[in-house]
Structure formats: structure tokens, C-alpha cells
Amino acid sequence: MTNALYSLNVLAVLAAFAPYFVLGALWFTVFFKNAYQKALGRGPDATPANAPIFIIGPAVCSLVVTVAADLLMQRLTINSAGETFAFAMVIGLGFLVANTVNIAINPNIPKPIFYSLITGSYHLVGFTMACFILYGLQ
Q1: Residue 134 and residue 74: Cα distance in Å, rounded?
Q2: N or C end: fewer C-beta atoms under 10 angstroms in the chain?
Q3: What pLDDT is stored for residue 5 in this prediction?
């Protein structure tokens, strides 16, 4: 496994991570701001928390997901756009979206299905975009 880390395409990972992370910032603060606030049981004018963890945490998580995608795509020898799309759908739906739904189903999320649609679709779109960037830069 340590050999796999040596094959990590750092520039491709950074090139894929940056738009994945920026998309998340735009997704939750511009594109779906009101819907996201509603899913969390807040009004449209609610002030989002601005502690550093709410920026650094998602950045680190997006980076870890992008590193894992790069390593898996190399090990699985993803060599075409079709394979990239299939990989993104399997991992995106099977892990990212499913985990988002699981996290949303708790008493602290008043509208778990709505939350899952907003957040899960971000992860599916962002992850797919990141995978195509990784594929294009391999």
C-alpha cells in the first residue's frame, strides 16, 4: 500500500480537489443556500456558522476523497471516460451519497431526505467532476 502512495499524482489530485472544494462552497452558500438552510431547519436569513472547522473540515475531507479516488483509479486501471463515469457512479452513490443519507437520518437534521438530496447531489456531482479531472491528467 505504501507503494501506491508513491504513485500518487499530486498535481492531478490538487487540480481535482480545488474545483471539488470550490463547488461545495458555491453549492451551499450560493446555488442551494436557501434550500440547505431549510433542510437544516433554519430560515433563509440564518447566519451560517463561520468557525474555521466549517472551512478546513470540508477541505480536508474533499482532499482525502480525491486522494483515495486517484489511488483507486490507478489500481483499477481506469482508462476511459466510460470507466471513469462508472467508477464515479459506483463510489459516488455507493459510498458518498449512501453515507450522506445515513448521516442525515438523525434527530438533529429536521428534513433528512431533503438534506440528503442537496448534500448527496453535491458529492455525486463534485466527485464525478474530480474523477474526470484525475482521468484527464493521468
Answers
A1: 10
A2: N
A3: 63
